[in-house]
C-alpha cells in the first residue's frame, strides 16, 4: 500500500462474495469499511466488538438489524450505529437483495479485527473469534417478507 493521497473504488459486488473489503482498495488506515451483500434469507453471525463501534448504511433493500435480540428494520438510505460490547446480527428478510456499507472504527487508529461471535442468541458459552463460528443457515422462505 502506498499513500497517494487519493484512491477510489466502487460499490460493485465481486462475484458471489457476501463480504467485500473497501478498506484495502481505498487504502484506509483509520477505520474499516466493507460492502455486505445479503440475498433474501441470508444473515450474518451474531457478533460484537470489544472496542470498535460500527455504522451500517443501507445502500439498497431493507436490513433487519437485530441488536441484543431486538429487531430494527432499516430502509435504503438509513443508518444505525452499534457501540462496542453490544451484540448484533444483520438479516435480510427480503423480499429483494440488501446491500449495506459497514464502517467500523475505534478511538485513535483503526485497531483491526476485535470481533467476537456466538452461534445463537441463546448461546451462553464464551464468545469466539468470528472465523471460528460457522455462518448461520439461510432463513426458510416462510420467515421472509413477501
Quick tags:
single chain, 146 residues, mainly beta, 1 helix, 37% strand
Description:
- The protein has one helix spanning 23-26, and strands spanning 19-21, 32-38, 46-49, 53-60, 62-67, 70-75, 79-82, 88-91, 98-105, 115-118.
- By secondary structure, the protein is mainly β.
- The strands form 3 sheets. Strands 1-2-9-4-7 form a 5-stranded antiparallel beta sheet.
- Strand 5 (62-67) and strand 6 form a beta hairpin.
- The protein is globular, with a radius of gyration of 15 Å.
- The N and C termini lie far apart (45 Å).
Summarize the structure.
This protein has 146 residues and is mostly beta strands.
Biggest sheet character = 5 strands, antiparallel
Query: How large a portion of the residues is in β-strands, by DSSP E?
Result: 35-45%
Please tell me how large the radius of gyration is.
15 Å
Number of strands: 10
Distance between the termini: 45 Å
Q: What series of H and E elements makes up the topology?
A: EHEEEEEEEEE
- Placed side by side, the strands forming the largest sheet appear as 1-2-9-4-7
Helix content: under 10%
Number of helices: 1
Structural class: mainly beta
Mean pLDDT: 89
Q: Outline, from the CA principal axes? A: globular
Low-pLDDT ranges: none
